[in-house]
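cache lookup: miss for this entity combination. No prior model stored, computing from scratch. Input as submitted by user K.M.:
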Amino acid sequence: MLGEFFFNVTQISSVAAQLRLLAVTVAAAAMIVAAVSVTLNNIRNIVRRTKGQWLYHLWCLVFLWFWIIFGLYSGPTSENYLWFFNNILAALYSSILGILLFSLFMGFYRTFRVRGTETAILTVCAILVMLGSVTIGELFWGGFAPLSRWILAVPNAGAYRGLTIVMAIGLMAVAFKIIFGMDWSWMGVLRSVTEKKEEP
Amino acid sequence: MSTFKKTMFRDRNLVAWLLVIVIAVLYVRPIGIPLVISPSVRAWYTFDTTLGPASKPALISVDYTTGTIPEGQPALTVITKDLMKRGVAMVFVGFGTPDATSLMQTVFDSVGIAKIYKYGVNYVGIGYIPGGEVAIATLATEFQNVAKTDAYGTSTANLQLTKNIKNHEDFSAVFGFDTTNSYIFWIRNWAVPYKIPLYQYITAQNMPQIASYFAVGQVQGYMGGIPGAAQYEALSGFLGDAIRSTDVLSMTHIIAILLIVGGNILYFTRRGKRKKG
């Protein structure tokens, strides 16, 4: 795929395209592996009767396979499946995220406590962006929205670009280590080759 | 101050109840705070006004999760309605979550797309495609190989709308609805290499990130959270759930700011007392 990026050769592009299609297929198969793995893990805990947990594992297992069988039988676009999806799954998911709101609010006045210059800048920026992002801010002062946009587009964008570039360079370094066999942790080998060499 | 501190900042239930009451009251009786349209939403709407029945189909990616339906669905609903009004053909895909197929179908049912559009001719629902970034990248060059069948099991080669789609060149734009950070994959694999117009809905928490891509034109427009969707609803005239939620969002933000300010006042008061003591 690196070759495809740098050279315009039909054969290389064809191999790269096949590799990409293979990756899509592997990703689909990975979902089966995940379902099996979750099932085995839950069965293990149910068999061991893990104290205070095994009932939850049983509950998880029942619902996991209920959704799998029901989904395979009726299809994810059927009326029955959508009824369960919207009235159970979607409602539960949204409720969990809704509950997080309360935790967030409890954390607000602790997180944004002005202890120094950095936290003061963070708090002021947070308040300005909040007021600029919601409609009520405009009622207080018309400058909140432009100021918020400036914070997002100039200092924030600059910092984010810096972080993104640094992360990309870091990823390239990791990729090169893997390609040249200097790191085997992705294969489940915990220590890298270079570390092994250092051993007495 | 001590009583205030005890009740407001130590009794967590009071803050929770305050939130519940504010949210409930404003849902029942909205104040109707006027909306200000941001340049990023206006850019999206302006682009949509250039589309019509003769345009190439729009690729719509449903990448929000089931938990973020209250945020993502109003945005997808208003865009679908607006594109339907303009007669734009649409191809729906999803890469962020396997629930994308059901989320897509829920929107089809809620906007009544089948009453106005003909399936396979004006719109096609491919649904979830596994593979994340690799699948998004492959879709740009080999549409037929990645999206072999639609969500109902029909081959895309047999559908009038999709049978001639080969790659990115056959789409007018990508409209992403994302709460799973998939937007970065669209930027990397569609917007930058092929210069495909990319318009993204993202959650409000992702606005600081996407703003940097909007500033340099890699994303042509974006909607940030409920306020973004509400602005599009106001522009298009399809008023819905987003505009109903803006008052709630505004007031909860005000409570958050008051808590931050109140917390800091208490902190400094306590610190002053300690220094004196």
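stored under new cache key. Chain A touches chain B through 54 residues (CB under 8 Å).
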